Amino acid sequence: MIFTYGVNGTSLLERIAVPLAPERFLLITGVEDRGFGLVGGILAGLFPIEKQETVPQIEALMDLFTGDLEIFEPGIPGGSVYLGPDPERHFLFSRVLEEIFAHTGGRGDPGAVLGVFSLGKAFLQRRISTLSGGEKMKVALSIAFCGAFGLIVLHGVLPWLDRPGKEILLREIVKAKGRGGCVVVLEQEIDDLIADADKLFYYDGTKILAYRSGFRSAGMRRVDAAAGLVLAAGSAASRSSGPPAVVAFDSVRFQYESPKEGGRGKDVSGSDGSEGFSLRDVSFALDSGKVYGLHGDNGSGKSTIAKLILRAEKAAGGAVFFLGKDVSTASREELVRGICYVGQFPEQQITMSCVEDYRMRARRMKNPLAEELLGAYFRGGGSLPISLLTPLQLKLLILADSAASSTQLIMLDEPTWGIDPSGQADLLEALARIIRTAVSQGRMPPAVLVISHDMRFLRSLGAETFQVREGRVIKDPGANRKRATATGKKARERKG
């Protein structure tokens, strides 16, 4: 398929050439901007959509998806399916069984559909809202690969999957090819897929090129350099007489309610883990000026730990402390002033319509740090609508808006998600700027908690890592030995 796409007279994609053909697996990586996501949607026939709204605010949001598409060479015939990086957007119904029924029309065994990604039948009774992100993505992928689609387009789904899930995905891609289908995957994390791809491409921001390893290596070097800036900024402050731990978990317990069958109170949870996860006797502490990494399988409870700190979830037992105070007794203002949180999907944290609104709020709140960051990363973009921001810009915007001189904790939930290596470096440079500002003002730098499945990213930061496993948070000695080695090496390089 060869096409060009533009919006309001501005060309976004120039003669994009993707050789769609039966029995083929194509892998595309590259610059993660607005166009990267559009490529997948256009291939799958989702965009452009017909512009119908007359409300100006809605029109502005939809402009990107109602552009002018010129096709020079059509794609393969037959139905298509598209899965994007946010699994929340793949569901219309409240329960898994209802969702499967809607897609299959009641044909076949719903349990067999879930079995594609090794999900037990107990999941059929689960509410979508009780599933972890990884479980939601597995349900969506199970439905997609059970259909007779000629083209399957997947964008950013791999980070949701644990190791067995990734192996199943590759197996299903091979099966889809065997049925004469074409699978296109747009992904930043390509190491697990390269060996099986028939063709590998790189999107440079406007067009598709044949992939070369050098395209990514420069970006990864920038990530390592920016991580060194974070380490240097944090190590500049003395921690000999700091305050109590910024965050402390003391024997914390938490569990989502198990599903009940037919409302009769019968527990339908099974040995396959379908009852959801629980946290048991979790205890750990985060100190000022240190960088911590939290990793574990999808659905293990990493993001829930962040929610417990933010008091978005309530512990069933034990206590969570922020600056020595039980968060259950802390005011919302204390938590907002002390914690800078950038979620996995920062668009869910957006409250204003353009960048200038955030700049004005920073001035009104007398927050020079936020003003500085907004000025650094959004030059000349005063009235830039939020709908036009890239995933990186959204994360930078929330980071800038949430950071202040009162910030004691910075939490980044899956910061590498949907961002190419160059963008990851930009985010780390912004983080280093926040830490340096604290040190220059004679304050203890904030503790940094990075929740990520990307171990390379955590190692580059020299993070002290914890693993969430089987309901517990366990210090990771193997990774921390590597951290000490890497930190010492970077320190020697800085001295040299």
Share in β-strands: 15-25%
Largest sheet: 6 strands, mixed
Number of strands: 21
Looking at how many chains there are and whether they match, the oligomeric state comes to: single chain
Q: Percentage of helical residues?
A: 25-40%
What is the distance, rounded to the nearest whole angstrom, between the alpha carbons of the first and last residues? 52 Å
Which CATH first-tier class of the largest domain would you pick?
A: Alpha Beta
Radius of gyration: 23 Å
Instruction: List the strand order in the largest sheet.
Output: 5-6-7-3-8-9
Total number of helical segments?
A: 15
Task: Walk me through the topology.
Blueprint: E1 2-7, E2 10-17, E3 24-30, H1 34-43, H2 56-62, E4 68-73, E5 80-83, H3 96-104, H4 110-115, H5 133-146, E6 151-155, H6 163-178, E7 182-186, E8 199-203, E9 208-210, H7 214-235, E10 247-255, E11 260-261, E12 266-267, E13 278-286, E14 291-296, H8 302-310, E15 317-322, E16 325-326, H9 332-338, E17 339-342, H10 355-364, H11 368-377, H12 391-402, E18 409-413, H13 421-440, E19 447-451, H14 455-460, E20 464-469, E21 472-475, H15 477-495
Parallel strand pairs: 3-7, 3-8, 5-6, 6-7, 14-19, 14-20, 17-18, 18-19
Antiparallel strand pairs: 1-2, 1-4, 8-9, 10-13, 10-15, 11-12, 15-16, 20-21
Helix pairs in contact: 7-13, 10-11, 11-12, 12-13
